[in-house]
Q: What sequence folds into this?
């Protein structure tokens, strides 16, 4: 398990827990709810807290690599 600060000055941290890599951020004003699947990351929005997990759609596309 490894937890490090974000180096872009925002309120959050990066994590690597049991091989699952991602980051979390706390927003100032905007509240969001739900899931969002992007090409590189999957996002879980819980009010002012957002959790991003590496993988996204590219993990699904990589299953059929080289045939």
A:
């Amino acid at each position: 398990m490894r937890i490090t600060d974000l180096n872009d000055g925002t309120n959050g941290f990066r994590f690597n827990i049991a091989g699952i890599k991602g980051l979390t951020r706390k927003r100032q004003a905007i509240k969001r709810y739900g899931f969002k699947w992007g090409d590189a990351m999957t996002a879980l929005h819980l009010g002012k807290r957002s959790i991003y997990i590496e993988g996204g759609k590219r993990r699904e596309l990589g299953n059929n690599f080289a045939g």
Notes: Residues 2-47 form one domain. The radius of gyration is 14 Å. The first strand starts at residue 2 and ends at 5. The longest helix spans residues 56-61.
